[in-house]
Every structure is written in C-alpha cells, then in structure tokens.
C-alpha cells in the first residue's frame, strides 16, 4: 500500500542563481577574497558577478541549499512530493531557477519582489578550492505574509516534513516560528 506524498515535504531557504567559474588567485586578490571562504557580498564585491559573466567561462547553476536539497529529494520521490518557498526577483534569473525546479518536478512557491533582482552566489574555483560570495538581494526579502496566503498556507498544513536551513533564520524568523 503506497502512501500519498503530494506536498509532503516543504522547504524554506534563499533561492540563488550560482555563477560558477574557474578563476585565478589574482581575481581572489582583486576582490580581497580567500580560498575556501564563504562570505556575504558587500558593495565592493557586486561587480564580481558581472566580471564572471563577461571574462570567464561561467556556468549558471540553480542554487540555494534547501532548493537544491528539495530538487534532489523530488527526483527520488513521487511527482509533486516537494514544495519550495523563497523570494526571487521578477527577472531572467528567477525564470532560470523556476525552469530547473520544473525539470526536477519540484513545485516552487516563490514570493516575487519586483524591486530587487534574484539573489546570486559567485562560486570561484581555484585549484581544489571553492570560494563563495553570496548576494541575497531579493532572497532576503521573504515575508511571512507570503506564507499566510490561503493557497500557500494549505501547503504548510498538508506537509508531513519541513526542511528549513539555518540561512533562512536570518531572513524570516516569523515564518519559521509559524
């Protein structure tokens, strides 16, 4: 006897479009970065994202810890088992994230922020090292108000399991407490 798992797994985190490139130590030095470090982007790091796109063979990958975890889980579970919540911009990067989720049959309930772009994460590969620079942008604007809408709250009530990363605690603690 099989169990109905539609919407059984709900996740919350920061959806980010990863921009991955193999770079030299000179780029790390230019942006005052360390190998194998993970930081939040400050104003001095913002040009890095366009530099990667313009000057390197950058790969665009769907990212965000929980979104990646739920995409993987959804590949193993019956279709429609996982639902992801997070905030994105109203832009091409959000559409790329949505396409990757749909390819894995992951349903997304993105809150769309028309004032900020979708968050990105620079993944800088130097030898065997990976440095990460995250620009949360729209992802850090997630609001509990989005969760409380009747259609979204239904997903919360129907879930059997919740996956919430520590990253999301800084974004919307009121959502987590609900």
Structure, described:
Helix content is 33%, strand content 30%. The protein has seven helices and nine strands. It has helices at 25-30, 46-55, 65-76, 92-103, 144-148, 150-158, 173-177; strands spanning 9-12, 16-22, 38-40, 59-63, 82-89, 107-113, 119-126, 129-135, 161-164. The strands form two sheets. The chain has a five-stranded mixed sheet with strand order 3-8-7-2-4. A four-stranded parallel sheet has the order 6-5-1-9, sandwiched between helices. The protein is elongated, with a radius of gyration of 17 Å.
Please count the helical segments. Answer: 7
Q: List the quaternary state of the chains.
A: single chain
Order of helices and strands: EEHEHEHEHEEEHHEH
- First-last Cα distance: 33 Å
* Model regions low in confidence, pLDDT < 50 over at least 5 residues: none
Features:
about 35% helix, elongated, 9 strands, five-stranded mixed sheet, alpha/beta, 7 helices
Quick structural gist:
It is built from seven helices and nine strands. It is α/β, with parallel strands linked by helices and 178 residues long.
Topology:
Blueprint: E1 9-12, E2 16-22, H1 25-30, E3 38-40, H2 46-55, E4 59-63, H3 65-76, E5 82-89, H4 92-103, E6 107-113, E7 119-126, E8 129-135, H5 144-148, H6 150-158, E9 161-164, H7 173-177
Parallel strand pairs: 1-5, 1-9, 2-7, 3-8, 5-6
Antiparallel strand pairs: 2-4, 7-8
């Amino acid at each position: 006897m099989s169990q109905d798992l539609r919407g059984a797994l709900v996740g919350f985190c920061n959806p980010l479009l990863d921009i991955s490139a193999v770079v030299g130590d000179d780029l790390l030095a230019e942006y005052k970065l360390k190998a194998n470090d993970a930081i939040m982007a400050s104003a001095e790091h913002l040009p890095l994202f366009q530099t990667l796109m313009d000057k390197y063979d950058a790969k665009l990958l769907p990212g965000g810890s929980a979104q990646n975890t739920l995409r993987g889980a959804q590949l193993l579970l019956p279709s429609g088992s996982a639902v992801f919540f997070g905030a994105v911009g109203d832009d091409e990067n959000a559409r790329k994230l949505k396409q990757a989720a749909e390819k894995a049959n992951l349903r997304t309930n993105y809150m769309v922020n028309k004032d900020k772009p979708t968050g990105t994460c620079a993944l800088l590969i130097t030898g065997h090292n990976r440095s990460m620079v995250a620009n949360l942008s729209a992802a850090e604007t997630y609001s509990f108000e989005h969760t409380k809408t009747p259609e979204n709250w239904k997903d919360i009530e129907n879930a059997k399991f919740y996956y919430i990363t520590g990253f999301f605690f800084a974004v919307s603690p009121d959502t987590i407490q609900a």
